[in-house]
Amino acid sequence: MDTFEEINVKGYADEYIDPALDLFDEINRLKKEKNAVVLAHYYQEPDIQDIADYIGDSLGLSQQAAKTDADIIVFAGVHFMAETAKILSPQKKVLLPDLKAGCSLADSCPPHLFRKFKEKYPDHLVITYVNCTAELKAMSDIVCTSSNAVQIVESLPKDQKIIFGPDKNLGAYVAKRTGRDLVLWNGACMVHEIFSREKITRLKERHPNAKLIAHPECEDVILKMADYIGSTTGLLKYATKSEDKEFIVATESGIIHQMEKKNPGKLFIPAPPNNQCACNDCPHMKRNTLEKLFLCMKNEMPEVTVPADIIEKAVKPIERMLKISAQLGL
Ligand code: 13P
Ligand code: SF4
User: Fold this and answer.
1) How far apart are CA 310 and CA 313, in angstroms?
2) b vs e for 42-81, b when ≥16 Cβ sit within 10 Å of the residue's Cβ?
3) Tens of pLDDT along 9-51?
4) In this structure, how many other beta carbons lie within 10 angstroms of the beta carbon of residue 275?
5) 193 falls in which pLDDT band (50, 70, 90)?
6) Number of H helices, E strands in the chain
């Protein structure tokens, strides 16, 4: 087995796996044996979604992390999500199949620079999108996700001055929806900024009945064309309830697995990106594999930890978000 240091360099425990093993059976056995729960984001590969105990968006996943009675939370997602789970359940062991499953959006907001930015607006309240580091959350007043960002802003007095970070696209969307003047950090997600307006227009000509559904991390040019805008759970619910049969999906393509499972007979087309590749995969989310999930459960490594002083500060804005969301029935 790899040492702790080797895991830190590579991001995961690398070990021979007997090809005769049925990894689904093994993971289910380990869940029972270790009282572990597997929480997976919709952008994970289909096998991981299928073995998970709970699949959801960032809000749903943090709600689950806060209430689970498992001893081990295995987070099939990216680093900031596992950190959020650890902050909410510090007494539990939180595992991430690949420690290097990061996030370009979280990386676009280094805490030392955000601290300086914040100092320029001393009378502003800080709302941070959950896609950021634990250190950034510790500097925030309220955290939000794409499911509740509009409602969180609306829950504050109209004259409250607000800094919103790190996603400028979600921030601009929330500013538009709420009519508030938000001070935005200039960050973005590499996956949601890649969609091509021209290619989507051509695709719509070939599928005139298709509805364009988009995540609010997309740029305004894409959101302006969209028939529906929502978080991953929002997009899934919209497509499932809709009478329409064809959808162009402007978010990471992993969500299409659940869309197809819940809607046999409907067509889901990934929105085309601005490059030669036909897929919209998040390279960070897709670092996790079924093999790494199995090994991390077997070895209980890599583990995600957060310093106690950061937990103490970061838990408040996350709990504030969960409280507002519960009051609003989100
Ligand atoms: P949600 O699943 O909360 O919509 O977030 C999307 C995302 O980019 C997660 O990294
Ligand atoms: Fe981060 Fe974007 Fe990947 Fe989500 S899809 S984890 S925001 S890089």
Assistant:
1) 5
2) bbbbebbbebbeebbbbbbbbbbbbebebebbbbbbbbbb
3) 888 878 899 999 999 999 999 999 999 999 999 999 999 999 9
4) 9
5) very high
6) 16, 12
**Domains of the chain, CATH where assigned:** 4-101+285-306 (3.40.50.10800), 105-189+314-328 (3.40.50.10800), 195-270 (3.40.50.10800)
Please give the average per-residue pLDDT across 209-234, as a whole number: 98
Judge whether 229 and 274 are in contact, CB under 8 Å: no
Q: What is the pTM assigned to this prediction?
A: 0.96
**Residue to mutate (ligand 2; options 83, 104, 252; most atoms within 8 A of CB):** 104
Please identify which residue in the block is written with the tokens 């007494």: 91
- Pocket, ligand 1, Cβ cutoff 6 A: 42, 57-58, 131, 145-146, 189, 215, 217, 231-232
Band of pLDDT at residue 277, cut at 50, 70 and 90: low
The yes-or-no verdict on residue 144 having pLDDT over 80 is: yes
Tokens of 85: 């789970």
Ligand nearest to the CA of 258: 1
Q: What is the pLDDT of residues 97-122, one digit of tens each?
A: 999 999 999 999 999 999 999 999 99
Instruction: Tell me what the pLDDT averaged over the chain comes to.
Output: 96
Q: pLDDT > 70: what percent of the chain? A: 98
Distance (angstroms) between ligand 2 centre and the Cα of 22 equals: 30
As to burial, measured by CB atoms within 10 angstroms (0-12 exposed, 13-18 middle, 19+ buried), residue 89 is middle
Collapsed DSSP state (helix, strand, coil) of residue 184: strand
Task: Give 249 Cα–ligand 1 centroid separation in angstroms.
Answer: 14
Instruction: Indicate which ligand has the atom closest to the C-alpha of 61.
Output: 1
Of all protein residues, the one whose alpha carbon is nearest to atom 4 of ligand 1 is 231
Find the 123 Cα to ligand 2 centroid distance in Å: 30
Q: What is the mean pLDDT of residues 144-168?
A: 97
